[in-house]
């Protein structure tokens, strides 16, 4: 955390331990807290391209919405350009990614249209096949997500927010929920046009092993492990951003926090004491829930605004974004493209998932095309694609940090 202290009318940012945030949070604004975080160049570089991949996904969904004729009018896309954050216009964005989008004139309507290139279309089919093959895994993900909820139920609109992150097919209401009536029950809520997804009574599983629990077991079973079972019995794996200063006092407080009792996300927390120890227990449980939520996503990342829709249902009585900032060794928060995206640090190495899955592999191929931009379009006499360097100001959307 950081607060501003005025010395001789000059602001000085002072680093403070994240574990003291409850006593000093009122002295700094949320924006200052975000700005003072330790940056990780690897995640920032990934998000620089990923923010444009999210826009590509939105356009791809519009193109594929009509399976019989997967094309889209550029004029129609222009009407939603602002909503999709295409800051320089729809046509300019399409032209930045010729490996993904193909422009052509519709002779009947006398309008420019766009469609996916053959390469991009193949990737979309690869992802669709991977999603279809992963339905058994998706079913378990939904069961786990509902099991974390205190009421074993979640609003359907919240799940719609993260359908892509969870690897759900776009028709998951019929292909996943309706196909498993022994597990899921969809019922009306008190609000109009709102539905609640519930676990069928008798299917609540409190014996799920979390990702952090599996890590503890694996770490202790290693012959050259530097930990023992008592030392990491309640701990989380920490990997801090490069260059982040870890003072002796900071390390001591992290060690103390690691030793606090751990209550897993699938275990019911009966008592919620408002004592200092009770607040710390609630915070550690909130970390456990957020950690497990991210582990259930395809890419081990999610937009903070989306996960906030689950906060009340998971019983998290804390600011979810500040929770990520308070634990920089477990989570990484990026604000590229005006999006607050949180990553599970331990799941990544050099900007890639350590344990990829087929759905991630397909999306990564599309990200590679985004990173390629306009390069590689021309072939030399040997048939090899020539790679030219573009001006960075032209190759990406300029929408700020």
Can you describe what's shown?
It is built from 17 helices and 13 strands. With 401 residues, it is α+β, with helices and mostly antiparallel strands. The chain folds into three domains: 41-120 and 363-372, Arc Repressor Mutant, subunit A, CATH 1.10.10; 135-206, Orthogonal Bundle (Arc Repressor Mutant, subunit A), CATH 1.10.10; 207-353, no CATH class. It has a three-stranded antiparallel sheet. β10 and β11 (341-344) form a beta hairpin. α6 (118-133) packs antiparallel against α16. The two termini are 19 Å apart. Residues 1-27 and 379-396 have low confidence and may be disordered. This is PORR domain-containing protein. It holds the Pfam family PORR. One of its GO terms (molecular function) is RNA binding. It comes from Aquilegia coerulea (Rocky mountain columbine).
Give the helix/strand layout.
Blueprint: E1 2-7, E2 10-15, H1 21-24, H2 30-35, H3 41-64, E3 72-73, H4 74-79, H5 90-96, E4 101-106, E5 111-116, H6 118-133, H7 135-148, E6 153-155, H8 156-161, H9 172-177, E7 184-188, E8 195-199, H10 211-221, H11 248-258, H12 276-296, E9 301-303, H13 304-307, H14 311-314, H15 320-326, E10 331-334, E11 341-344, E12 348-349, E13 352-353, H16 358-372, H17 392-395
Antiparallel strand pairs: 1-2, 3-5, 4-5, 6-8, 7-8, 9-11, 10-11, 12-13
Helix pairs in contact: 3-16, 6-16
